[in-house]
Amino acid sequence: MRTEVIGIYQSGKGYKAISKALGLQRTTVRAIIHKWQKHGTVVNLPRSGRTTKITPRATTSKELQASLASIKVSVHDSTIRKRLGKNGLHGRCPRRKPLLSKKNIRARLNFAKKHLNDCQDFWENTLWTDETKLNYNNFAKMSGPKFLQSAVKDSLQVIANA
Question: What value does the mean pLDDT take over residues 52-66?
Answer without folding.
Answer: 67
